[in-house]
Design a protein that fits this description.
heterodimer, A: mainly alpha, elongated, B: about 500 residues, mainly alpha, 19 helices
């Protein structure tokens, strides 16, 4: 896609904006529409856009396959360990009161942020991994075929 | 919020219901992060042992008829998700945990022969997720949570079945078939849940049970129930909906076949039992007629037809898969008799058949390590060169037929008693007929193993491979002699269900 100069320039500009918007959706998820799932999809969309325009090799330089795989697992761990944290402090699994027993409301707030973070990480990298496994299979299109 | 009273006061013992489910769930992502195949096996095995330990503690806790409840996140039901362990779920949790532990011992040697090494970590991770899903379905008392866990287990199962593709590419189409059928089943199930939620406004089983009673004859609830029966019928391979099962069992890696045959269909049946007895009213005419007019004939057809088909199969994995269909027929039949003894026989057969089928599939897997395939011809004369594996296979086979002294006898006897007690003597005759067919197909294999000359000689498999097979075979005998663990618990469980 050497000659698609406009696409490339716009993509380079947009990727940052998309990730920023993803982070906004992520961290406002607890009191406005949004949350980990939506944010994860948005952030993954930035990488997928980069991959579509710049080519699979280039996006895999930024985000290697092994990293996507491990990070997806890490997200689940963040979620599960938040729950285990409550168990260790004598509360029910995923009872966020454990995070701040004196201020239960704050505890709930922090807890949901942590859990959504886990969801966000997992969704982002699972989406990227799905894109990789589909994009890696198809025969690459030559520039001439455009 | 409940926790205002008991803030931070829970001991580790109170957490058993959730620990049962999250132990494998926590280990699964850790495996992916560490990405070391020996360590993966070790950690999965330790996780499965921990699950087994927890499930034994749970059985002890509920064996006096008490019920353990656990409020996730401290939210009181019906708003929050509740985990609820009674004797019925404790048996199933024990079955799933012990089978997973035994199967993981076997996987140490058999997985190398079937799956390339770089896939092992992800395989074990998927296996643990499947385990999480199955345990979660049994532990939870929230019907939507049941759906979520069912999907966790099913999705990982599709992946696990597809792993057979390294030996035989047909595993891919088998897995895809299973994916389509399983997803349709899950869709039906979730539609059913939707109807129930529409009518009652609740997702908690106990809460729904109370509200359903007030409704009486309600079309929405009946439609919901019908959807759930069909959805679960797909998942548990009820006879006209069974087409995914034979191929999925045949082409999956041996480890996966053992695990699925012993647990997955049983868990689906458990869900059905749960819905009939804990969510709906089992005395309801609609429920009773559905079971009498629909499930009982289907169960009988499964018993007879699948056994007959099994006789003609040359691929032994497929033969055993069809025999599984017949055994599922027995379990469904026990349930559809709608009597306390019938249900008890169904529950006991879940456990007994779990051990029996796992022993059979696992010894087939051990044969396969040497012969590379499980066609009946290639097993000729193995009784001499692989005496220990063959002997274990024979014990499993006897238990499958239901010879006295083995586990299979106990549950079939209970089923016969239940059928005669409720006056279905024709059904009782058909049960015996189906057992006779089982004699034919088991004998067919034994004959090849012991009474035909082998062209090649093989060495017996290693002790590490034999150990899990013999643990299962000994369980087949032990459960046939000592029935306190199965029959007594099952009868108590049915007393809880028929309250």
């Amino acid at each position: 896609m050497k000659h698609h100069l406009i696409l490339k320039v716009i993509t380079k500009f947009m990727v940052g904006v998309i990730v920023l918007f993803g982070l906004y959706v992520q961290f406002h998820g607890d009191y406005s529409p949004g949350g980990g799932f939506q944010a994860g999809v948005i952030i993954a969309a930035a990488f997928i856009l980069y991959g579509i325009v710049m080519g699979l090799e280039n996006v895999q330089k930024v985000m290697p396959i092994w990293f996507a795989q491990k990070a997806a697992a890490l997200g689940v761990l963040v979620y599960a360990l938040t729950g285990v944290f409550s168990i260790i402090f004598g509360f029910e699994f995923l009872n966020y009161h454990a995070i701040s027993p004196e201020h239960p409301k704050h505890g709930q707030h922090y807890g949901i942020i942590l859990v959504e973070l886990g969801v966000g990480i997992t969704v982002t990298f699972v989406m990227i991994a799905i894109y990789y496994s589909f994009a890696g299979r198809t025969p690459r299109l030559d520039d001439k075929e455009w | 919020m409940a926790s205002e009273i008991k803030q931070g006061t829970l001991e580790l013992v109170n957490h058993l219901p959730i620990l049962q489910v999250i132990t494998p769930m926590l280990i699964a992502p850790i495996l992916v992060v560490l990405n070391n195949k020996t360590l993966s096996w070790l950690l999965s095995f330790v996780g499965a042992l921990a699950c087994l330990f927890i499930s034994i503690l749970l059985i002890q806790a509920v064996s006096d008829g008490s019920i353990l409840t656990y409020y996730l996140g401290g939210w009181v039901p019906p708003i929050g998700i509740e985990y609820r362990i009674d004797a019925v779920s404790a048996i199933l949790l024990f079955l799933i945990s012990i089978i997973s532990a035994i199967v993981l011992i076997f996987s140490y040697s058999s997985l190398h022969a079937e799956i390339p090494e770089e896939k092992h970590t992800l395989f074990y991770s998927c296996f643990l997720l499947c385990l999480t899903g199955l345990l979660g379905v049994v532990a939870t008392a929230d019907i939507f949570n049941v759906f979520v866990f069912l999907e966790i287990s099913s999705l990982s199962t599709y992946v696990l079945v597809a792993q057979g593709a390294f030996l035989d590419r047909r595993a891919l189409s088998a897995s895809f078939n299973y994916l389509i059928m399983g997803t349709i089943g899950a869709t039906f199930f979730v539609i059913g849940i939707g109807y129930i939620y529409m009518a009652t406004g609740s997702l908690n089983m106990m809460d729904i049970a109370e509200r359903v009673n007030q409704f009486g004859d309600n079309r929405t609830i009946q439609a919901g129930f019908a959807f759930i029966v069909v959805g679960m019928g797909l998942k548990l391979a009820m006879v006209p909906l069974h087409v995914w099962l034979p191929n999925a069992y045949t082409f999956a890696p041996t480890v996966v076949t053992c695990f699925l045959a012993a647990t997955a269909t049983k868990v689906a049946l458990y869900v059905l039992i749960r819905f009939v007895f804990s969510v709906f009213n089992y005395e309801d005419i609609f429920v009773n007629e559905l079971f009498f007019l629909l499930l009982m004939p289907l169960a009988v057809i499964a018993m007879i037809a699948a056994s007959v088909i099994a006789i003609f199969k040359q691929n032994l994995k497929k033969l055993l898969a069809y025999s599984s269909l017949a055994q599922i027929g027995y379990m469904l039949l026990g349930l559809s008799l709608m009597s306390q003894k019938g249900l008890a026989s169904s529950l006991v057969h879940m456990v007994n058949h779990g051990f029996t089928k796992a022993a059979l599939f696992m010894s087939l897997g051990a044969f396969m390590l040497n012969t590379k395939n499980v066609y009946i011809k290639s097993l000729s004369g193995l009784g001499k060169s692989m005496p220990f594996t063959s002997a274990a296979f024979v014990i499993g086979g006897l238990s499958l037929i239901g010879v006295p002294g083995t586990a299979g006898f106990i549950s079939k006897w209970l089923l016969l008693e239940a059928a005669l007690e409720t006056g279905y003597w024709l059904v009782a005759i058909l049960i015996i007929a189906s057992s006779l067919f089982a004699v034919i197909y088991v004998w067919k294999i034994i004959e090849v193993l012991y009474f035909s000359e082998s062209s090649e000689s093989y060495n017996e498999v290693s002790v590490l491979t034999l150990m899990p097979i013999w643990i299962l075979a000994l369980f087949c005998i032990f459960l046939g002699i000592n029935t306190s663990l199965t029959v007594d618990v099952a009868i108590m469980a049915t007393e809880i269900l028929f309250k």
